Amino acid sequence: MSRNRVIPGFGLSLGYATLYTSLIVFIPLAALAASGISLGAETFWAVVSHPQAVASYKLSFGASLVAALINLVFGLLVAWVLVRYTFPGKRIADALVDLPFALPTAVAGIALTALYGRNGWFGQYLEGWWGFKVAYAPAGIVVALTFIGLPFVVRTVQPVLEGLERELEEAAASLGANRWRTFRRVLLPALVPALLTGFALSFARAVGEYGSVVFISGNMPYRTEITPLLIYSKLEQYDYAGASALGVTMLVFSFILLLAINALQYWNLRRQGGG
Q: What are the TM regions of this chain, as residue ranges (predicted)?
């Protein structure tokens, strides 16, 4: 007795999908791992555990985490304003959210450096009045990573907010719940999966960012040098194996963190579904 296939040509489609994914993702990642492992265990460990590399890991993941957390809060706020309120220029503001997607990252880096540099529009006051340096400091890296990661949270949360029924909020208000309690008990549980997804996308985008950071960071070893910049420096020195070793390390760290975020999201969905 033959089984009825839901999708005609499933085997052929699966073959093409597997081939495409292998060519674009799996084979390049395997080549990266093979190039890094070719150094040997001792040399590989010496490269990835070098103090300069460790400092770049801390800055890369630390700045990415801070930027993703900022986007988690303000991305939700931006999505809330765009969905729940009507105001002049709303369509323009909604379109501007996607600007980091279309703008070349190098252009974003130059623009942010011009704004937050010592003589920039914002930098001259931040550094001159309060002594807070943004450009060529870790704070500048956070600003750049926040800029390129904001659309991921907004565009992930926005459709979920649009789909929430206003009747639930009205019912909570009729039962005596204030606005904060309504948000925390009614709206937030429905938004958590989208928020976690937006956070993960923003974090992953920030970890691998290069173009917008290279101009505003200053690229000072042990201080403002992120791992992608260190990898590029090794490539300029024709140290391909060392660059691959750092790439493998970043790949492993990123995979573990994203796996943890997805596990947290799965646990949250199970908790909501199972009560």
A: 12-39, 59-83, 95-116, 136-154, 186-207, 240-261
